[in-house]
Amino acid sequence: MLPLASAPGEARDPDGRYANSPLKQWFDSLRSGKGSCCSDADGSAVSDVDWESKGGRYRVRIDGEWYDVPEDAVITEPNRVGRTMVWPIRGYQGLSIRCFMPGSMT
């Protein structure tokens, strides 16, 4: 996975370096059924080999391990960056996926 820091409009922007990005407001507004994406988790771009869709469901590989994406974590609005994005959260119960935005597989 590539950290979003290499793309304009980083998910969380604690130091303000993406404040003038044309996509910042859009990233800040992204929500899934689990809530706001950028408020609690850092988003990362996902390579095409690290996600898949089968039977209308998504899976994503994070740190070498595959995770099923919960339906309520999928962002359904159009993807303005084109890249697949995931917002994982690590907690006391392990990793969960806050938001997932599919891109176009090339």
Describe the structure.
This protein has one helix at residues 24-29; strands spanning 2-3, 31-32, 35-36, 44-46, 51-54, 57-62, 65-68, 84-91, 94-101. It is mainly β. Strands 1-4-8-9 form a 4-stranded antiparallel sheet, with no helix packed on it. Strands 5-6-7 form a 3-stranded antiparallel sheet, with no helix packed on it. A hairpin with a 2-residue loop joins strand 6 (57-62) and strand 7 (65-68). Mean pLDDT is 81; it is low at 1-11.
Number of E strands: 9
As a percent range, the share of strand residues is 35-45%
How far the N terminus sits from the C terminus, by CA atoms, comes to 16 Å
Query: Mean pLDDT across all residues, rounded?
Result: 81
Output the helix-strand order: EHEEEEEEEE
**Total of helices:** 1
**Major sheet size, sense and barrel closure:** 4 strands, antiparallel
Strand order of the largest sheet: 1-4-8-9
Q: Outline, from the CA principal axes? A: globular
Note poorly predicted spans.
1-11
**SS-based structural class?**
mainly beta
Overall tally of structural domains: 1
Radius of gyration: 13 Å
State the helical fraction: under 10%
What descriptors fit this protein?
single chain, 106 residues, mainly beta, 4-stranded antiparallel beta sheet, 3-stranded antiparallel beta sheet, 1 helix, 6% helix, disordered N terminus
